[in-house]
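Long-time lurker, first post. I've been practising inverse folding by hand and with some scripts of my own, and I keep getting stuck on stretches where the structure tokens seem ambiguous. Below is the full token string for one chain I'm working on. Before anyone asks, I'm not after the true native sequence, just a reasonable design that respects the backbone. If someone could post their per-position residues I'd love to compare against what I wrote down in my notebook.
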């Protein structure tokens, strides 16, 4: 006899609103456009709501690919050693082909962040590297905004257990669901209008920053004195973005950040992380790094240092920055006080930097630049893109003009 697991209590009305926001705001899916969804198996209820909203919006073909946490663990326990240097290249080539044919992309996040915590770190690192390499052609189309794309989250029970370890499983799922719904602005009756207002507020910030054309940002606070040179002809983005296919999408739900491309060769000083970085099953805490001419020359962490150094060794660009983002300390996600162990949420709780690949979109006329032109303006290139938090209520940020004079941008973590 088998017993079916109890269905966790996720508010069906808010779940349906999240699906509607993903399709109408996140993707702005167009009539006739195909859609590719990737999701953990547990997110099936959300994927079904999204699929219905997508077809109602006129989608052509909606295709879903599911990942299964148990199957992933089975691989680490049983697969032959040499298979960890391979990945499903044929699948990612197919994805890249679909994106070239204007298929929209929706990723449902919600995997257990600690799934691989007790597996062999060497195998995890090799598998990640092989996957990043195989995924590169598809990732370039997403990072370059060739198409409209979006990420939303589902409160997977295994994830909820990490965020609320002291709660009963059903209670943890309900609490995580509520946190996701609040952060995603679907806990109110008219989430589509709320998102339009939020996008307008973020646009005001990016317009101000773009008008200033700072040459650098200077972060100061406890354990941090960091000058992040900004790429030549960089452009700030936040909230809604126009993809190269002409569709305005909101790639991240939730989102609170405004972000741009740093100059890969002009980052100097030292910086301390203000929140733990959860990276593929390892928690990396109290990161302290020193930059010289854009490159990390010294890296320490009180926990997960070995994994962090492995990440930095991925390739030449992994020691340089591909993103700098500003988020006020009073953002709703920061105010929740939760650590989500999920970049989509945690990066929207604090100002952050990202190691690795830059977004070519974050340049004036970025959509038209070749990879060589992006590099010439200071854009970094890497197989990885990993965000970690450097903002808090104690961090000041100044914009540095071309003549070296500072302009206050943030004081004690808030917009001036
Ligand atoms: Zn970011
Ligand atoms: Zn990022």
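-- Answer (accepted) --
I ran through it position by position. Result:
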């Amino acid at each position: 006899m088998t017993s079916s697991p109890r269905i966790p209590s996720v508010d069906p009305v808010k779940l349906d609103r999240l699906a509607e926001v993903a399709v109408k705001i996140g993707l702005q899916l167009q009539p006739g456009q195909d859609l590719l969804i990737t999701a953990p198996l547990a997110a099936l209820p959300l994927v079904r709501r999204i699929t219905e909203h997508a077809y109602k919006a006129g989608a052509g073909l909606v295709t879903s690919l599911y990942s299964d946490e148990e199957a992933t663990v089975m691989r680490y326990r049983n697969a032959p050693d040499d298979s960890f240097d391979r990945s499903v290249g044929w699948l990612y080539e197919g994805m890249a082909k679909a994106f070239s044919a204007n298929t929209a992309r929706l990723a449902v996040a919600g995997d257990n962040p600690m799934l691989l915590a007790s597996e062999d770190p060497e195998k995890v690192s090799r598998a990640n590297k092989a996957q990043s390499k195989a995924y590169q052609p598809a990732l370039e189309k997403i990072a370059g905004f060739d198409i409209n794309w979006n990420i939303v989250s589902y409160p997977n029970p295994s994830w909820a257990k990490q965020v609320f370890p002291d709660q009963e499983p059903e209670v943890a799922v309900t609490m995580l669901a509520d946190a996701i719904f609040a952060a995603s602005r679907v806990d109110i009756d008219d989430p589509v209008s709320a998102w339009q207002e939020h996008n307008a507020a973020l646009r005001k910030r990016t317009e101000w920053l773009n008008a200033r054309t700072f040459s650098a940002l200077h972060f100061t606070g406890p354990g941090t004195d960091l000058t992040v040179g900004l790429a030549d002809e960089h452009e700030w983005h936040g909230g809604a973005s126009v993809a190269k296919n002409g569709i305005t999408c909101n790639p991240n739900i939730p989102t609170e950040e405004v972000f741009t491309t740093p100059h890969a060769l002009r980052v100097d000083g030292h910086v301390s992380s203000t929140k733990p970085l959860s990276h593929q099953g390892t928690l990396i805490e109290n990161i302290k790094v020193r930059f010289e001419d854009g490159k990390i020359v010294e890296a320490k962490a009180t926990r997960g240092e070995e994994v962090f150094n492995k990440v930095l060794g991925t390739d030449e660009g992994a020691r340089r920055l591909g993103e700098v983002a500003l988020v006020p300390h009073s953002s709703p996600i920061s105010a929740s006080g939760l650590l989500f162990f999920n970049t989509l949420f945690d990066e929207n709780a604090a100002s952050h930097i990202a190691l690795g690949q830059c977004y070519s979109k974050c340049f004036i006329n970025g959509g038209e630049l070749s990879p060589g032109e992006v590099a010439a303006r200071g854009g970094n290139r890497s197989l990885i893109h990993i965000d970690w938090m450097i903002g808090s209520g104690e961090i000041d940020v100044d914009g540095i003009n071309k003549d070296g004079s500072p302009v206050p941008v943030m004081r004690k973590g808030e917009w001036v």
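A couple of notes from the structure itself: The chain has a mean pLDDT of 94. Residues 121-143 form the longest helix (23 residues). Happy to go over any region you disagree with.
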